[in-house]
UniProtKB/TrEMBL annotation:
One of its GO terms (molecular function) is alpha-N-acetylgalactosaminide alpha-2,6-sialyltransferase activity. It is a single-pass type II membrane protein. This is alpha-N-acetylgalactosaminide alpha-2,6-sialyltransferase. It holds the Pfam family Glyco_transf_29. It is found in: Golgi apparatus membrane. Keywords: Disulfide bond, Glycoprotein, Glycosyltransferase, Golgi apparatus, Membrane, Signal-anchor, Transferase, Transmembrane, Transmembrane helix.
């Protein structure tokens, strides 16, 4: 399983290289829709929207979700004018043209020495079990955005091996969060987080019950962004000719952020994946595991194609 930026108030000259190249790509332009709403805010719930989205299963809609929970969760989200999550994270001294690094957990990063290069980007995105301590030279030390589902975050925090490697808490200082609401449990988890209460019985019950415990007393709802079902459905439907993953990874959603000037991807599958361990933090070398619900080979093809089209820059250790 697996785990995202958006439109900025910038002059047209600063519109992203990614956007420009996508529009001019014979391969990507037919499926490219730059104005799709990526994240939800409190304007995204009404009875009309509920009626429309309950025809699609999560993460593409709200089918079989609890009406009251969804209403409470979405209505409590802060306004997000123009989807400006990068501007929300921006400091006055930061440049107006952005570059972003999306960092995966692939073994290709072990011994790579690209940590400083990763940290040189304006924003650094990480996902799930993002081990940093002891690997700063290879993966950097900054985390601007941390992407997750409720399950992947809690499973990573409970993973014994990840704890031994130093991942015992989610990034906090100067970090913003992107929740990919893929299932009813994500809405139940978010409802508990927003209301500072325990998760309802039967939801993620093998993990910690109180979501605020992972964020601390200083939790700021303005720093949490939640994927919009329309965007998730758009990615699935528009990308279907080349991408048939039952469950696309968080990192792929990250890379499809149309508003960035330059997107660089590190720690993902390349043609020579067999040379590297499954994860950069593995104590013993372990080959990549292939799963029925995660088509790594097709994902590898997609990364490579995006790189060739100059949509992203894929780190290939060459």
């Amino acid at each position: 399983m697996n785990p995202y930026c958006s439109c900025l108030e910038l002059p047209i000259i600063f519109l992203t290289r990614m956007t420009s190249n996508a529009r001019h790509s014979d391969w990507l332009s037919p499926i490219f829709l730059p104005k799709i709403k990526i994240f939800m805010d409190n304007s995204d719930f009404s009875n009309e929207i509920w009626d429309r989205l309950q025809h699609f299963i999560p993460p593409f809609g709200w089918m079989e979700l609890n009406y009251t929970v969804v209403k409470d969760v979405v209505s409590a989200l802060p306004p997000l004018p123009d989807q400006q999550i990068l501007q929300a994270a921006q400091k006055p001294q930061d440049p107006q043209c952005f570059s972003c690094a999306v960092v995966g957990n692939g073994g290709i990063l072990n011994g790579s020495g690209v940590g400083r290069e990763i940290d040189s980007h304006a924003y650094v995105f990480r996902v799930n079990g993002a081990v940093i301590k002891g690997f700063e030279d290879d993966v950097g030390s900054r985390t601007s955005f941390y992407g997750f589902t409720a399950y992947t975050m809690l499973a990573s925090l409970s993973d014994t091996q990840l704890k031994k490697r130093g991942f015992s808490k989610i990034p906090k200082d100067n970090t913003r969060y992107i929740l990919f609401a893929e299932a009813p449990r994500d809405y139940a988890w978010l409802d508990a987080l927003q209301k500072n209460k325990d998760i309802i019985k039967g939801t993620l019950e093998n993990y910690r019950k109180h979501p605020r415990d992972d964020f601390g007393d200083s939790f700021d709802p303005k720093k949490l962004f939640v994927s919009h079902p329309d965007f998730m459905r758009y990615l699935k439907n528009r990308s279907e000719p080349l991408w048939h993953l039952p469950e696309p990874t968080d990192s792929l959603y990250n890379a499809f952020d149309w508003s960035l000037l330059q997107v660089s991807a590190y720690g993902f599958m390349t043609d020579d994946f067999y040379k590297y361990s499954d994860h950069y933090y593995d104590v013993k070398s372990s080959p990549i595991k292939f799963y029925a619900n995660h088509d790594f080979r097709l994902e590898k093809h997609l990364w490579k194609h995006l790189h060739r089209e100059n949509i992203i820059k894929l780190y290939q250790r060459r």
